[in-house]
Please model this.
Amino acid sequence: MDEKKPWGGRFQEETDKFFEDFSESVSFDYKLALYEVKASLAYAQALTEIKILSDSEYKLIYKGLKEIEDEIKKGVFIFRKEYEDVHMNIEKALFEKIGEVAYKLHTGRSRNEQVVTDLRLFLIDKAEELKWSLKNLMKTIIDKAEEYYGIIIPGFTHLQHAQPVLFSHWIMAYYEMMRLHLQRLEDYEKRLKLCPLGSSAFAGCGFNLNRKKIAKNLGFNEPTRNSVFAVSSRDFILELAFILSLIMLDLSRWCEELIIWMSQEFDFIDLPDRYCTGSSLMPQKKNPDGAELIRGKSSIAVGDLIKLMVLIKGLPLSYNRDLQEDKPPIFESLDTVINSIKMMALMIQGLKIKKENIEKYLNKGYLLATELADYLVTKGIPFRKAHYITGQIVLYAEKRGKKLEKLTLEEFQRFSNVIEEDVYKWLTIENAIKRREIFGGTGFKSVKKEIDKAKKEIGYEN
Ligand code: ARG
Model:
């Protein structure tokens, strides 16, 4: 028996060539090959333990699979489209090496469970890689926060000057986003590390395998609890695709900020030449392409999430062939996001702050107006009223092209007689920072503490 198709017995005509190409998945699921071998080894061991395989048969299978593993690692294993997918390719290769014993490995086993087992194993490794890249980016953020500690920038809301803030505090906001993504991935791993093997096509294996042991051998936390769920659910792919999208949305927003900050209108920062390009026509140009590309590539992650959501919508239980289409989007999203995180870290490492330019901007946009309102509150004026009075003072100063701290006491007192000489102590950029030592605020000490805490929590010694 060496039929090309595993279901050949029931069929009277050969598979159509065009359909064969249309339905193959090995051109993309070959990426799961090493996990297929790993899962097959664990499965063979479990079959041996319940005497479906003899010890000598197990040894043969083990040897054959190990050879295949070696060929895959060396890149010399040949994947064939006519064998449809990675599972059949490896089974065929095993047959070619050890003969009919190879077919015993499929006892009680279905590709429906194999594909989700392989995918989960693959994603366990990818989640590790992702966490590593996030941590690397987080360290880079800490480095920048320390390098430019003390520099004050205008903070924005609505992209309008709002209040002064430490640059370190601003950039540590991105640290916080990445920290939560890391946490999200760790939580996701709990749902990822469930082992489907033993679910068979969907009804559960007809041979009493030790599922707990298989799960443990493969590095899962436990076996899946319901065999129908095991082969039908793709939540473990969608959840990751969602986390990947969230990461990319944050990176995209960050890149947008870098792009704006590098424009001539802002001129807050410079990015290294090595991550920028010029124009083929305009000799003066230096464009922040690295940042623009990350912003652009966020569409890939979001698009892939949408593909996956649409893919499963309306699918009845249990396995349906549609599910084969789950792999290209998650593979693409993972590659894109891991590379984007890496690119982001490289750009941030090279980011330079233009302190003198930023300082000029601190004089614009009445960044200290909130301080004046708060000052009035300390003199007993209700905040809403203090806000109104300050608004009037800003309007007055704006018309005269004056900064708040340049108004005379007499001018201030025209708006409120509680204002005294001590108001000027309030109206400095440094004071605005110093007044915010609250937990999570931009105060000098508070930010320093946050940076130290961040270093400790990711085990960073620099
Ligand atoms: N290549 C298939 C996939 O990726 C493997 C499972 C095939 N199962 C089946 N009953 N045809 O989903």
